[in-house]
């Protein structure tokens, strides 16, 4: 992926999707734009405080990120065909640890935000659409713009993110290949254990 180095940097592109106050916007592009403006303003205003104590980023992520992501659906998609063979407890375990992994990665990305510019591209979709893709581009100094496509679905009159495509690469597809390797090596319980260990060893800094 051009201009991106690993999953942590990939998640920097998700910054504009966080908010705790905009849950009723019917236009998904407006949701992306308005929530982005809000969270970036808050992160920028609290930059010194967050740098002094990175742990403070967690409450911000918990209140701003989680309401806009369908972690259950993301976990099911990432686990792929193995999901149907998992027990309810295993499904809960994968969702819990995958969510924690994404939250930790996202928190680190927020701490590293340094004023990248976001361009919201024109989009068309039916007024009664239940699934939409919102195209954007993120520009960094000295590098070509990186296309970011957000996949959202309507659930109970709310729009939730269920995948992000960065420079042509799906976040879920990326994780699915990793999950498949871990499941084949140690089963679904092995995957849960591996994710839990990674979470323990991935502090925000």
Give a brief description.
The protein is an alpha+beta fold and 205 residues long. Helix content is 49%, strand content 17%.
Account of the 3D structure:
The protein is of the alpha+beta class and 205 residues long. The protein has a single domain, classed as Roll (Nuclear Transport Factor 2, Chain: A), CATH 3.10.450. Helices cover 49% and strands 17% of the residues. The protein contains seven helices and five strands; from the N terminus they run ααααααβββββα. Strands 1-2-3-4-5 form a five-stranded antiparallel sheet. The chain is globular, with a radius of gyration of 17 Å.
Q: Could you please say which CATH topology applies here? A: Nuclear Transport Factor 2, Chain: A
Structural class: alpha+beta
Low-confidence stretches: 2-8, 18-24
Order of strands, widest sheet: 1-2-3-4-5
Structure annotation, total helices: 7
Major β-sheet profile: 5 strands, antiparallel
CATH second-level architecture:
Roll
- The outline comes out as globular
């Amino acid at each position: 992926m051009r201009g991106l180095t690993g999953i942590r940097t990939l998640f920097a592109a998700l910054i504009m999707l966080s908010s705790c106050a905009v849950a009723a916007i019917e236009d998904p592009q407006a949701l992306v734009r308005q929530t982005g403006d809000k969270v970036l303003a808050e992160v920028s205003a609290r930059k010194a405080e967050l740098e002094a104590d990175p742990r403070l980023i967690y409450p911000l992520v918990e209140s701003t990120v989680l309401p806009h992501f369908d972690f259950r659906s993301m976990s099911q998609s990432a686990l792929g065909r193995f999901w149907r063979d998992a027990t309810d407890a295993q499904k809960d375990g994968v969702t819990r640890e995958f969510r924690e992994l994404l939250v930790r990665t996202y928190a680190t990305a927020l701490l590293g935000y340094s004023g990248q510019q976001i361009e919201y591209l024109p989009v068309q979709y039916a007024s009664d659409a239940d699934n939409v893709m919102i195209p954007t581009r993120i520009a960094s100094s000295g590098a070509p713009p990186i296309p970011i496509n957000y996949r959202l679905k309507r659930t109970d009159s709310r729009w939730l993110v269920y995948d992000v495509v960065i420079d042509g690469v799906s976040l879920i597809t990326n994780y699915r290949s990793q999950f498949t390797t871990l499941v084949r090596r140690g089963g679904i319980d092995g995957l849960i254990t591996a994710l839990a260990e990674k979470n323990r060893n991935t502090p925000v800094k």
